[in-house]
Specification:
Blueprint: E1 8-12, H1 19-33, E2 40-44, H2 47-57, E3 62-66, H3 83-87, E4 92-95, H4 98-104, H5 108-121, E5 124-129, H6 133-137, H7 141-152, E6 169-172, H8 186-205, H9 207-212, E7 214-218, H10 226-230, E8 237-240, H11 247-257
Parallel strand pairs: 1-2, 1-8, 2-3, 3-4, 4-5, 5-6, 6-7, 7-8
Length: 260
């Protein structure tokens, strides 16, 4: 089946790269990524590096994203960043990453608040869903992913962009594959998308929207295994962690994502 969705490869730098280190990396990324057509590119640095990275991306085809945000527009929330602050700099925002859920107490309910706030601010959320190893081994993958999709997008209203695209990205990231070197197989990841993720989206927004939303795979994606995922009909790119911190590796992954 020919894909009609434009692939997206986003690099999640997590808590890596000082401003000085970002300034060293980004020019190499721009030089290698900017000429690549047929795939959308984005990088998501730490908050401290967003402003200098934005300046370095000026005039390029690479989008900027944030790794998180609070749901409130402003207020007495020491240490937090509001949607309006993120929207001054970014196109995308990662919401509900498993590390946020595991280490910082994020729930489906707070994820839902953030998704709604992202839309109010004009941001495109990259909503992360995925099961733990224990849930996977217990056969609860479908149950977990469906719950995270339906609760995370509860009462959300999606309005297509002018070009007809849907301003929502889902990242399927099995928790047991993140940062462990263990990736799901392309076939297994594709099955989760086709059996659970798109049907859940269809229940919320209708079949046409469900088929238009881009779904990425995340979890130990490298240049050596990227094509296994990108060749799957339901997978539209990747949310890349550690490999996005190495210019040559990330550029190679993006090249694999280009539509034939």
């Amino acid at each position: 089946m020919e894909k009609k969705r434009i692939p997206l490869v986003a690099g999640n730098w997590k808590m890596y790269k000082t401003i000085a280190e970002a300034r060293q990396l980004v020019p190499d990324l721009v030089a290698g990524l900017d000429p690549i057509a047929g795939v959308e590119k984005a990088i998501c640095p730490p908050f401290t590096a967003l402003l200098p990275v934005k300046a370095l991306l000026e005039g390029s085809s690479i989008h900027l994203g944030a790794q998180n945000m609070h749901w409130e527009d402003s207020g007495a929330y020491t240490g937090e960043i509001s949607p309006r602050m993120v929207a001054e700099l970014c196109t995308y925002v990662i919401i509900g990453h498993s590390e946020r859920r595991a280490y910082f107490g994020e729930t489906d309910e707070t994820v839902n608040k953030k998704v709604k706030s992202a839309y109010t601010a004009g941001l495109i959320p990259i909503l992360c869903v995925g099961e733990t190893l224990q849930e996977n081994e217990a056969g609860k993958t479908g149950e977990v992913v469906e719950r995270q999709i339906k609760k995370g997008l509860l009462d959300v209203r999606l309005t297509p962009e002018k070009d007809g695209s849907i301003p929502l990205v889902i990242a399927y990231e099995p928790v047991w594959a993140i940062g462990t070197g263990r990736a799901a197989s392309g076939e297994d990841a594709n099955t989760v998308v086709s059996k659970y993720i798109r049907p859940s989206l269809a229940q919320l927004f209708g079949l046409a929207v469900a088929q238009s939303v881009r779904v990425l795979y995340g979890g130990s994606v490298k240049a050596s295994n990227a094509s296994e995922f990108f060749n799957q009909p339901e997978i539209d790119g990747a949310l890349v962690g550690g490999a996005s911190l190495k210019a040559d590796e990330f550029i190679a992954i993006v090249k694999y994502a280009v539509l034939p």
